[in-house]
Amino acid sequence: MSIPSQLESALTQSHVNFSPLVHLPTYGTQYAAAMMHVSGNDVAKSVVLRTAKTYFLVVLPAPYRIDFEKLAEIVGGGVYLVDEEECNKLFPDCEAGAIPAFGELYQLPVYLDSSLAHDLHLVLNAGTRADAIRMTSGDFIRMVKPKVCSFAEKL
Fold first, then answer.
1. Distances in Å between the alpha carbon of 144 and those of 22, 98, 123?
2. Cβ atoms within 10 A of the Cβ of 65, count?
3. Model pLDDT for residues 37-76, shown as the tens digit of each residue
């Protein structure tokens, strides 16, 4: 599988400089970081969540976890994980479990943990278990327009 065409088109149309990274298929961002010989702190993972009313995407460093209480305060209500079957419906052009951080392409608001906002580069999943994208955090923020806030904590 290759990068979803709508993601590739969005990157090109946004005039964003990015480097594609290919690695052996993995089932987690920490494993992907190891395969790419990149620090887990530089690899962002995407998690699909929902409130009672809407779905949204959070992006945080691979070795961090979501503080659900903080996030509930930010979004104004209870926050729940979305199961893989629902994710597959929301991201039909992506490999199961390989959620790209570009929620705006799927009509999902994006929340970026502030710990990633000032990193020079981010490595992001590109919709498959073997493809990633390296780009500057500034380009990611300009392209995706996430809400930057603090909702993650290091494991």
1. 22, 18, 15
2. 13
3. 677 677 899 999 999 999 999 999 999 999 999 999 999 9
**Beta bridge partner(s), residue 47:** 58
- Name the domain count of the chain: 1
Q: Are strands 147-149 and 110-113 parallel, antiparallel or unpaired?
A: parallel
Domain that holds residue 39: 5-154
pTM here? 0.91
Phi, psi values for residue 10, rounded to 5° = -65, -40
Please say whether the beta carbons of 35 and 21 come within 8 A.
no
Whichever domain contains 145, its CATH number is 3.90.960.10
Radius of gyration of the chain (CA): 14
The alpha-helical segments, DSSP class H, found in the chain are 5-13, 29-36, 68-75, 84-90, 114-117, 137-144
Dig out the tokens for 12 from the structure: 């090109």
Q: Quick check: 1 pLDDT over 60?
A: no
